[in-house]
Amino acid sequence: MAQAQASYPSIRVSEARLAEAAAGINLARTAYLPRADLFGQVNRATRNNIFGMVLPGLPMPSISGPPKPENDLGSVWGTATGITVSWEPFDFGYRKANVEAAALARTRAELAVERARFDAAVMTADAFLTVLAAEQTLTAAEAGAARTRVLAQQVEALVQPGLRPGADAARARAELALAENQVIQARQAVRTARVTLRELTGRADEALASGALLAMPAEVGGEAGIDQHPAAREQNAAVEEARARRKASELAYYPKFSAQGSSYARGTGANPDGTTRGAASGLGPSIYNYGVGLTVTFPLLDLPALRARREQESQRERAEGARHDELLRGLRARRERARAALDGAAAIARNMPGVLEAARAAEAQAAARYKAGLYTLAEVAEAQRLLTQAEIDERLARLAVWRARLALAAAEGDLRPVIWEGSR
User: Which of 208, 218, 237, 230 is nearest to 415 (CA)?
Assistant: First the structure.
């Protein structure tokens, strides 16, 4: 089971998503850090400038300096370099809310890994029980084929001296062929079950230790709660994450305060009076400036969009809450069905020893009566088939109880009692 939890692909997918969610927390925390932009520029351009305003948003480069009364197509060198630092000193809890939402996303991813491992453990345990059931069916089928083979030999010995009609020998060979076909089908079922188990564990075929799984398990106590089921915990984390994102969306409509500082230097090959300097003038910065300040921005017309986003997050929270309620209801129904199946399987398993004993007695009596000439071969063959089926059913009945125990544990979210008892 540990092999399946370590190698099953869906678990690796969940672990990768967990790593992604953990990186999301680090990304959200970077919002607390200041922003620093280094810049540098060299250009060769004309210097014509005029009075007037241009609305922002146009992809038009700006020119500083006094206006020129006429156009001059001559160009000069210009340079600019500097650094601008911007930091948001407070945000009314917005960044904290985003970090908390990212942390809850990581919690959800962690629980998704736990749920994936639990699902893999359930599938592996079920596949293990299927292999054991197929092997037990094969053992009983081989025993039945051996009995049929002995019967065929006995019938041949009676047909040769004429003590039984030749039709009995043909019927005995037909019964033996049917028994051997049952063995072939049982072997195929074993191979198929082992392929499924190998798909889950990623390991080659090997001998399986049945432990206590071929005996009747102990009685199950009272019902366990399902609130701690891995799927329920994962979905509850999804509700908490949606609630945190809704709270973060409610904090988006606040002013943004930015403390800013900038230091830069510029160089130009033009003089204020419109004349130009030397050919290489302007290739290096010669004028330096610095400044600090506090900027406040307010998303005045973003309110409708922010309201829509908040409503979206609220609806997502309601949806996740409804999924949580639906999941709990489904788990309760699964537990009820598993409990009913366990009670029925346990009752059948307790009844099977008597059925098997009666089938053995009937087969022995039929064989003795056939030898005495009181029974036909068809009655003996029917008694043997009933015995083989009773042996198969008796072996599978105990495994059916274990399978029902597994289904109940899977519904309750805790496989440890089943694994511990079954491995003794």
Answer: 230
What is the separation of C-alpha 77 from the centre of its chain, rounded to a whole number of angstroms?
61
Tokens linked to 118: 């639990």
In whole angstroms, how large is the CA radius of gyration of the chain? 41
Compute the distance between CA of residue 23 and CA of residue 103 in angstroms, rounded to an integer. 10
Helices 303-371 and 377-412 cross at an angle (nearest 10°) of: 160
What does the pLDDT look like over 288-330, one tens digit per residue?
999 999 999 888 888 888 889 889 999 999 999 999 999 999 9
Among 143, 173, 128, which residue's Cα sits nearest to residue 390? 143
Q: pLDDT tens-digit profile of 207-229?
A: 666 666 777 777 766 666 788 89
Identify residue 54 by its one-letter amino acid code. Answer: V
State the amino acid at position 346 in one-letter form: A
Q: Residue 64: its pLDDT value, please?
A: 83
Q: Report the alpha-carbon distance of residue 98 to residue 101 in Å, rounded.
A: 5
Q: List the end-to-end C-alpha distance of the chain, in Å, as a whole number.
A: 15
pLDDT band at residue 383 using 50, 70 and 90 as cut-offs: very high
Residue 200 burial (CB < 10 Å; 0-12/13-18/19+)? Answer: buried
CA distance 87 to 203: 55
CA distance 240 to 326: 16
Q: Could you tell me the two tokens for 344?
A: 């029925």
Looking at the predicted structure, is the pLDDT value of residue 8 above 90?
no
C-alpha to C-alpha distance for 314 and 244, rounded to whole angstroms: 10
Residue type, 315: Q
Pairing mode, strands 76-87 and 256-268: antiparallel
Q: Is the separation of the CB atoms in 198 and 3 below 8 Å?
A: no
Identify which of 283, 270, 286 has the alpha carbon closest to the alpha carbon of residue 74. Answer: 270
CB contact set of 39 (below 8 Å; sequence gap of 6+): 80, 81, 82, 83, 84, 264
Scan for tokens 């979206």, then name that residue: 312
Q: What is the 3-state secondary structure (H, E, C) of 109-176?
A: HHHHHHHHHHHHHHHHHHHHHHHHHHHHHHHHHHHHHHHHHHHHHHHHHHHCCCCCCHHHHHHHHHHH
C-alpha to C-alpha distance for 135 and 133, rounded to whole angstroms: 5
